[in-house]
Amino acid sequence: MKCKICQSESIHFANAKILDKYNIDYFKCQNCGFVQTEEPYWLSEAYTNAIASSDVGLVFRNLQFSKITSNIIFSIFAHSSKFLDYGGGYGLFVRLMRDEGFDFYWYDKYCDNIFAKGFIAESEEEKYELVTAFEVFEHFSDPLTEIQNLFQFSRNILFSTELLPENNPKPGEWWYYSLQDGQHIAIYTVKSLAIIAERLGLNFYSNGLNLHLITEKQIPEVLFENLSYAPPPNNKKPSLITKDYLQVIGKTEEIEQELTTTSPLAPQQEKFKVIIDGVFFQSFKTGIARLWKSLLEEWVKDGFSENILVLDRGGTVPKISGVNYRNIQLYNYSMAAFDREILQKICDEENADLFISTYYTTPISTPSVFMAYDMIPEVLGWNLSEPTWQEKHFGVRHGVAYITISENTARDLVKFFPDISPESITVAYCGIDSNLFPASSEEINSFKTKYGITKPYFLLVGARSGYKNGILFFQGFDQLYNKHGFDIVCSSFDPVFEDEFRVYTSGCTVHKLQLNDLELRLAYSGAVALAFPSQYEGFGLPVLEALACGCPVITCPNSSLPEVAGEAALYVNYDDVEGMVNALCDVQKPAIRNLLIERGLAQAKKFSWRKMADKVRSVLIKTSLLNLKLRAVNLIIFPDWLQSEESLYLELAEVIKVLGTHEDRNQITLLIDTSNISENSEIDVNLFLSSIVMNLLMEEDVDITDGLEISPVDQLDSLQWEVLLPRLHSRIRLNNENEEAIAQAKLETIPLILLDNLTNMRFISEA
């Protein structure tokens, strides 16, 4: 069967029963991935009702799309023009848009107009600034013809249809096939929609999920992605859409499961909370996005996700089961100061102990951990007055602890911010996805056939210009005596091949591909080598990915790259063309090539997202304890705050006096547990301790402020205790203690000392 989009061969993909009676076949295009059914003879029966009974999300969808469409029209189109909703259903969307002041009209050949009477598109000759077509494309039996008919109304079409997920689910594995109604007969991919736009001579934009724009206008891709999300309201009650859908399609057993899994949990002990701002996801889906998605997935596995709240900017953060989200507005650099206020308000509302951003945002006062991915702008002398780098530097100054993804980035961070103590920086290397491993020869051959790669090839991944230094590879490649025996594969988001490189590839085929993760594994596995001659990297994830796939690597011995590749790469100085030529020749030699592959696979095993997640988690927990001002010697007491104030005062005063006059007081922190102070207690801990310190000074001339550090310890959760316990030297025994708190803290391994023994006890040995 031929693909209805690109006319390539479509192979049998699946078989499924629709309308509970017809067994039909599905076919998937080998080129563009478009999924189509066999000729849909059942449609007249499927459309007994124009709106499927299972479409319980109709109202919610219209409300969401009305907000999104308003934003898109204001930002891209002439908002005073006429607009058309094609396949307008009951007319609810038209009514909503007209309520918002947009001159919208309704068009639908099959459905009754209920809400937009009086605003029907009378003539098919009328032209409109923009046509919307929500949940229409998947119903087309002849997509190209029907889509071309759409464009008789306008050269700009905003439409929704769910994209086939990358794991290629079959009917029964993905709800969007809508088997019970039999109306969804066309399932699209990004590539299939891009082909349609190209045939029409128009531009294509997508949010990568369900909303797309084919238009004559040229806009930044990031702009459409940002505009194509509307944050759902912060409902106090969970939506019943899922339950209603399961009920309509007769999945009664799953309703009970859904109710069980969404029922309210019993109150639990309050955990320390970290807020993560997912701001990076609103603009990019590159390596940093992969890093944070991987960390969140690992933290779900170990339970740390229970301590996390992710701020979801306009619905752009990937939804991972087990992660808590809070929807907030999209970030705008022109309103950075206002954004800080909003973040602080959220931190206060959520009782956050700590804040970390995926990309440089900060609250006002909540302690922040700053993650530095690289110092490229600083090292390469970029314009640091640009808003992005201004916010980065603000974030650096606001940080109380730092994480970098390489030792080199840590050194550069201190170099440009000398006030930062190296001890406050933790290096946490990136990991490698488990689905990256050497592909079989059959998989590689299938990949090469799919993309018409007929020769051995060198691979470049990501950007090639500027500091990425792709010019070095092309100059070296041009001098290979056998260069015409090779192809070049370039995988990046930008399909354009730069003119500056064309002079070096004359007579050779350059394949410009936009590969997904599964295809990238095959590209790595089949390549002669990955050429990655970057002048500077914060980490160098493509290098690690290539090593994991058994792909030899040619890179430069600068910045973080030697940390990633170790002894498993061929190194060439960033401006050494002759060295690049030699490396391109050496990597063709079987002995060298096999050695590099063997070393590369071993090197890749040193990196994992689990290791990184553990390190980052440890930093976050340790940073949440910074307010305790831990020192070389940390002693803890557990007074019973329910005893009389007089006896409590006398006991604490004695402990503080002994430690305040101790020879090692400059190295001691006294931790005082306050966990059993009731909410109704009249005791203010800080005032109470201050009065003790003041009275010791006035009555006994003992200046506690000269050395000893005193830190109240409020409720800590189990993770914080795990980090604190190894830092504790001893517990001082009191006459009246909070036995419950002692038991919860699990102090069995901590030495117990008596107050009478403290005076003559030395904690710090003299040099």
Which helices and strands appear, and what pairs or packs with what?
Layout: E1 10-18, E2 22-29, E3 35-37, H1 43-46, H2 58-76, E4 82-86, H3 92-99, E5 103-107, E6 130-134, H4 143-150, E7 157-160, E8 186-187, H5 190-200, E9 203-206, E10 211-215, H6 221-227, H7 241-248, H8 252-262, E11 274-277, H9 287-302, E12 308-313, E13 324-328, H10 336-349, E14 354-357, E15 368-372, H11 376-379, H12 387-398, E16 399-404, H13 407-416, E17 425-427, H14 441-450, E18 457-461, H15 470-478, E19 487-491, H16 499-502, E20 510-513, H17 517-526, E21 529-532, H18 541-548, E22 553-555, H19 561-565, E23 569-571, H20 577-586, H21 590-604, H22 609-623, E24 633-637, H23 645-660, E25 668-673, H24 685-700, E26 709-713, H25 718-724, E27 730-733, H26 739-745, E28 752-754
Parallel strand pairs: 4-5, 4-6, 6-7, 11-12, 11-14, 12-13, 14-15, 15-16, 16-17, 18-19, 18-21, 19-20, 21-22, 22-23, 24-25, 24-27, 25-26, 27-28
Antiparallel strand pairs: 1-2, 2-3, 3-8, 7-10, 9-10
